[in-house]
Amino acid sequence: MRKYRKQEHIENYLRATYQGDPLFKDVFIEHYSMPDFAYDDIDTGMTFMGKDIAFPLMINAITGGTDFAETINRNLAQLAKDFKIPMAVGSQTIAIEDDDAIESFAVVREIIGPQGLVFANINGLLGLEEAKKAVDMIGADALQIHLNPGQELIMEEGDRDFRSIRKNIRDIVQGLDLPVIVKEVGFGMSPKVIQDLYDLGVRTIDLAGFGGTNFFEVENLRYPEEDFSELFNWGNPTALCLLWAREMKKDDLTLVGSGGIRGAEDCLKALALGADICAMSGELLNYLIHGGYDYAAEFLSQLMHKMKILMMLTNCKKIQDIHDLSFSIKGDLKDLYEGRQ
Ligand code: FNR
């Protein structure tokens, strides 16, 4: 059942047509006409989770557990290695329950090697023991815990009782000797959830906001006899989540800006709004499935080139300069941010 579902998620993601808006279009950053350095001097490198990476983008959790998923993971891992960026594997529950599924995840570390950053992934209903198994399975540098009540609730076989999540997160943060990243899956984090996670000891939050992959639609495509389309607009847009998180940002809280990141401009804006790093799932998966490794690699190298162009046009020689950029907000983003009571 779980294996079949994994396959359907990929297929349905590719069939999905609804386009959400992460509201990056409502962020304005000024053009700067007098950059005072050369293109070749631009440094997109940074340190994340104690390791050097070449660019502030990670490949976010997608899959694992089937032969098809293993092929995808092999390609994603090769991309992560070649572009020197982090990668998270998809939910490992399937491999915690069935040893046959382990290789489809373990292959990611095998390809990336010991130098790269690889993140394990479980859902918030699993405890410390399962967290350790997931981490050991791939020699992970950190563990992602995903919060996906929206997705579970429209899945016929999905979970209905989320009471153990806080305890699980606290136990894992205290008992695991590695950083813990708590993430959404495309519905975004509210100010209260960000604060609660911080209070539970979580120091890296992946906002995974609305505007990209839409799990209401992806799941609904599995049950065509039911119509959940009226829910497809539900969620906290990514740019709004970033503004909320920025407002309460503590110095020791690392933010991953994700959900609807489709290109260089989204990345630049997410970093300017306060993300320490961006993450992408759906858009990269699209390129990979439609054109294989080469097509996805070309997409990433174009994205990185465009990012450098934008860095030059905002006078940012290094990633830290992007965090210091000023910006304006307008339209829906401004209304939603300023209208909050
Ligand atoms: C996902 N995502 C996901 N997240 C997670 O924590 N564990 C998982 O197993 C999966 N599985 C998965 C499958 C597929 C096909 C997609 C497209 C996505 C969610 C993903 O990590 C991310 O949070 C969201 O997709 C939002 O980012 P994008 O896709 O808008 O860049």
From TrEMBL:
Q: Which InterPro entries match?
A: Aldolase_TIM, FMN-dep_DH, IPdP_isomerase
Which EC class, in a word? isomerase
Q: Which GO terms describe its cellular component?
A: cytoplasm
Task: Tell me any Pfam family this protein matches.
Answer: FMN_dh
- Its main localization is cytoplasm
Cell compartment(s), UniProt: Cytoplasm
Q: Name one GO molecular function term.
A: NADPH binding
Key words of the record:
Cytoplasm, Flavoprotein, FMN, Isomerase, Isoprene biosynthesis, Magnesium, Metal-binding, NADP
Residues that, per the record, bind substrate? R5, K6, Q151
Residue sites binding FMN per the record: A61, I62, T63, S91, N121, K183, T213, G260, I261, R262, S281, G282
Name any cofactors this protein relies on.
Answer: Mg(2+); NADPH; FMN
Q: Where does Mg(2+) bind?
A: E152
Which Gene3D superfamilies does the UniProt record give? Aldolase class I (3.20.20.70)
In this chain the FMN-dependent dehydrogenase domain maps to 167-323
Q: What is its EC number?
A: 5.3.3.2
Name the chemical reaction catalysed here.
isopentenyl diphosphate = dimethylallyl diphosphate
The alphabetized list of GO BP terms reads: isoprenoid biosynthetic process
Subunit annotation: Homooctamer. Dimer of tetramers.
So what does this one do?
A: Involved in the biosynthesis of isoprenoids. Catalyzes the 1,3-allylic rearrangement of the homoallylic substrate isopentenyl (IPP) to its allylic isomer, dimethylallyl diphosphate (DMAPP).
The text of the family note is: Belongs to the IPP isomerase type 2 family.
| Name of this chain's protein | Isopentenyl-diphosphate delta-isomerase
| Biological source species | Urinicoccus massiliensis
